[in-house]
Amino acid sequence: MTTPVLDVRGLAYAYPDGHQALYGVNLHVHRGERVALLGPNGAGKTTLVLHLNGILLAGAGSVAVSGMPVEKDNLLEVRRRVGVVFQDPDDQLFMPSVRQDVEFGPANLGLRGAELDARVTRALDQVGMLDFIDRPPHHLSFGQRRRVAVATVLAMEPEILVLDEPSSNLDPASRRELADILRSLDVTVLMVTHDLPYALELCPRSVVLSDGVVVADGSTRDILTDEALMKAHRLELPFGFDPRSVPST
C-alpha cells in the first residue's frame, strides 16, 4: 500500500495553559484525495491544522508528510509541501501587488528570473487571476483576494492544500467559481469547513473531529445522512437541504 501523503498517528496536544485540544488523533490521507474536516466549534480542527505544517509541534504522537516527519529540522520542506490557505485572505496578502504576493514564497526558496515568473504565471492562471497580476490586492473583491491567496500557496507547488473555511463570506458566484478551481487542481485537499453542502459538493470523504478525537471517517454522503451522528456532534444541514438529492461527487 502506498505511503499516505498525510499520516497523523496518535496526535495529542495540550496548550501551555493546560487546555487539552487533541486526544490521540489518527488521520491518513492519500495522494489526490479531497477530504473535508468537519466538527463543531472547539472540536480541535484548528489545532490539528496547525500541526500539519509545523506551526505547532506534536506533544505526543506523530505527523508525517509523504513520509517526512513534521519536526523542527524539516520545517522548511514541510511548509513547502503543505500549503495552508487561511480563512481571511488579508492574513495572507501583504505586498503592494498580486505579483509580489504570489512570488514571495518561491522567491524565499531561491527561485529567480524566468523560473520565478513561470511559477507566478502558472499559479495565477490556475485560479483565473492572471489578468490581475499587477493590481494591488486591496483593490480586489473578497472572492478575488481569496483566489489570489490560493495562488500564493499553489506557487509553492505543495503536495497538500489545506483550506480553512474556503467558502465563508463568498457570494454564490464566487463560491461556485472557487469550487470549480478546487476540482481542477491536481493536488491533495484537506478542507476545514462548517459549510456542509460545500463539503458534499467537493469532498467524497469526510472526517468528523469532536472533543479532540476523530468520531467518524467515511463517505461525506453517509456522514451527512447519519442523523444520530450529526445531532451528537452539533452538525446541522441548512433548512431544506437533503444530501440524498445531490449527485455523487
From TrEMBL:
GO CC, one annotated term: ATP-binding cassette (ABC) transporter complex
Segments forming domain ABC transporter: 6-236
Family, per entry: Belongs to the ABC transporter superfamily.
InterPro entries named in the record: AAA+_ATPase, ABC_transporter-like_ATP-bd, ABC_transporter-like_CS, ABC_transpr_CbiO/EcfA_su, Co_trans_ATP-bd, ECF_ABC_transporter_ATP-bd, P-loop_NTPase
Lineage: Bacteria, Bacillati, Actinomycetota, Actinomycetes, Micrococcales
Protein name: ABC transporter ATP-binding protein
Function: Part of an ABC transporter complex. Responsible for energy coupling to the transport system. Probably part of an ABC transporter complex. Responsible for energy coupling to the transport system.
UniProt record, GO biological process: cobalt ion transport
Pfam hit, one: ABC_tran
UniProt keyword annotations, A-Z: ATP-binding, Cell membrane, Membrane, Nucleotide-binding, Translocase, Transport
Chief subcellular location: membrane
UniProt membrane topology term: Peripheral membrane protein
GO terms assigned for molecular function: ATP binding; ATP hydrolysis activity; ATPase-coupled transmembrane transporter activity
Subcellular location: Cell membrane
Annotated Gene3D superfamilies: P-loop containing nucleotide triphosphate hydrolases
